[in-house]
Amino acid sequence: MSLFQVQGLVKRFGGLLATDHVSLTVESGEIHALIGPNGAGKTTLVNQISGLLAPDAGRIVLDGQDLTHLPMHRRVALGLSRCFQVTRIFPNQSVRDNLVLAVQAHSGSSFRFLQPRASAHGLYERAEQLAERVGLQHQLDGLAGALPHGAQRTLDVALALAAKPKLLLLDEPMAGMGPDESLQMVELIDTLRRDMAVLLIEHDMDAVFRLADRISVLVYGRVLTSGTPDAIRNNAEVQAVYLGTETLETAE
Ligand SMILES: Nc1ncnc2c1ncn2[C@@H]1O[C@H](COP(=O)(O)OP(=O)(O)OP(=O)(O)O)[C@@H](O)[C@H]1O
Ligand SMILES: [Mg+2]
């Protein structure tokens, strides 16, 4: 069975079918990219997966657990984390304190009961490990709000990693980044597949084609097709959807 399954998900906004019976799977260790034109329903889908929006029909299953009707924090506890297009960092706190707060939020009660004295030390150690994991170890003492845009997005990824997700949802992680920052984010996401599966929504086709093991194309709320990057690049229907907006041919 796949690590993650969305089955027949439906979301209506009045007369608009924003998610039209969407089904997709993500396997362990897979980076699955979700692409599609503006307004295709990508964010609406991610909002339902993370628990921000309630679907009208369908099921969401992670590692055998039905998440469809669980509140967000329960989904996070069961292994589903997301990054936000609008970041959730505390700008007036240091990078270290942002990470410590995130680690603390996700350390279970057993951890606190078993190691009352060691716990503060453990939190700081874990925060530093996370900083190192994403390459922010030299910025730990700076204010999070003073970091460049790309580093703030990187910190947002680290905050999501604090929950030790089985599946990480990334909604346009490269948005607003320059070429160097984008490249660094691609390299970071590439390392994540060692530890988790990733559902990646991104308009940057270079990034998508460099990272994705599989790509699903969403159009008007429906999955047009799912396949390997090569299959998607050569799919005539997909090319027609992107004609005049973004070209898939330039993406290697
Ligand atoms: N809360 C809402 N109420 C009503 N309509 C909405 C709401 N959220 C989204 N929509 C509509 O649902 C459709 C899908 O929007 P969504 O934001 O999911 O698309 P998207 O694929 O993420 O687009 P983009 O690439 O621009 O981020 C759009 O037509 C949008 O206008
Ligand atoms: Mg969106």
From TrEMBL:
Keyword Nucleotide-binding attributed: yes
Among SMART domains, the record links this protein to: AAA
Which PROSITE patterns does the protein's record reference?
ABC_TRANSPORTER_2
Taken from the record, one Pfam family name reads BCA_ABC_TP_C
Q: Record's GO cellular component, any one? A: plasma membrane
Record has Nucleotide-binding as a keyword: yes
On the tree of life, the source organism's domain of life is: Bacteria
Q: Which GO terms describe its molecular function?
A: ATP binding; ATP hydrolysis activity
Q: Which residues form the ABC transporter domain?
A: 4-245
Record's keyword terms, sorted = ATP-binding, Cell membrane, Membrane, Nucleotide-binding, Transport
Family matches, as PANTHER family:
ABC TRANSPORTER ATP-BINDING PROTEIN, CONSERVED COMPONENT OF ABC TRANSPORTER FOR NATURAL AMINO ACIDS-RELATED
Instruction: State the name under which the record lists this protein.
Output: Branched-chain amino acid ABC transporter substrate-binding protein
